[in-house]
Amino acid sequence: MPMPTLADLKTHLRIRHGHEDDDLQMKLEAANSVRLAILIIAAELYANREESVVGTIYSRIPKAENMLHFYRTGLGI
């Protein structure tokens, strides 16, 4: 199966504008899941940098941690 193109990704995500093309292309070209995981974690920390959040329910989706699981060493028992 060939790798999806930027046009394929935009069609799948129902994106019609070109404002996010560079970001989407970078994600398509992410050859290393560690790089993508770092970007996801950095974006999460930047977006939620307040010490506390009032009036909302917040739960983390462990996608970045799942990407990094295969690179862990010394997992123990």
UniProtKB/TrEMBL annotation:
Name of the protein described by the UniProt record = Phage gp6-like head-tail connector protein
Q: Which Gene3D superfamilies match?
A: Phage gp6-like head-tail connector protein (1.10.3230.30)
